Amino acid sequence: MIEGLRRPDAGSILYGDTDLIRHPETARRRFGIQLQSSSFFHLLTVTETLELFAALYPSSRDVGSLVERFGLADKKDDRVQGLSGGQRQRLAVATALIHNPEAVFLDEPTAGLDPQARRNLWDLVSAFRGEGRTVVLTTHYMDEAEYLCDLIAVIDHGRVLDVGSPQELIRRHLPGAVIELAGDVPVPDGLSLPALDRIERREDTTAIVTSSLEDTLVGLVAWARDQGLHLTGLRTRSATLEDVFLKLTGRSLRD
After folding, report:
1. If you count Cβ atoms within 10 Å of the first and of the last residue's Cβ in the chain, which end, N or C, has fewer?
2. Can you tell me the mean pLDDT for 13-29?
3. Contact 213, 234 (CB under 8 A)
């Protein structure tokens, strides 16, 4: 709706003193948009694609420098149909920035990318943010949100559950730590441990969330010894945004 692609049923959207519902062209001129799935002309080259998008605006960035910045110099004369997933995503973000926007909306820009391609895009987003511009990022990757975002809104079924910086959200909801047990450790849900917050089953691990790592760990080790269990897959860590999401929503990220 902010991008001008869908008309709201009610309410208003203001950017400064501009009504974006009445003047959606303002959004398209001042914002950059990378959709979750982008369709390009497959037979155009990378350079031709960026030149096409640049021609849609009164002014634009230099295509050559943008190609260099996004690590596409060696692909600049290649057709889009031959690009890898990571290269195509970098091109999509480059088209969103071609007109030098004040803000950019990125809709799951790293979905389906390998770790190296994800990190590459993280660096590009961080650089854009470092220029003093605004990035609105939609993501299901909590590590991505924790790394890139200054302000986070946790949204579940269209309802904002909480807003804050990554560290604020963690301190507010999970000031303690997490003990993780790998494998199928028979920890009962009703196990009583000192400072225990809750016990969660996550894929192939059991997560024990605690407000006091030392107290809970001592109690857990004593319980395991009494049960004749060896906690060989045990590790401890600080709480993360994913832990906060699970606590607030009570469900996994893709439910």
Report:
1. C
2. 87
3. no
- Residue pair 213/176 in contact (Cβ under 8 Å)? The answer is yes
Q: Tokens representing 45?
A: 């080259």
Q: Are residues 134 and 197 in the same domain?
A: no
- Token pair 């709201």 is found at 8
Give CA separation, 53 vs 5, 60, 133, 148, in Å.
18, 9, 20, 26
SS3 239: coil
Q: What is the domain-level CATH number for residue 134?
A: 3.40.50.300
Residues in contact with 210: Cβ distance below 8 Å, sequence separation at least 6, in sequence order: 176, 177, 178, 179, 193, 195, 196, 197, 216, 217
The pTM (predicted TM-score) of the whole model is 0.79
pLDDT(254) > 60: no
CA 56 to chain centre: 29
Q: What are phi and psi of 156, to 5 degrees?
A: -135, 120
**Domain housing 194:** 176-238
Sign of the CA dihedral running 47, 92, 134, 9: positive
User: How many residues belong to the chain?
Assistant: 255
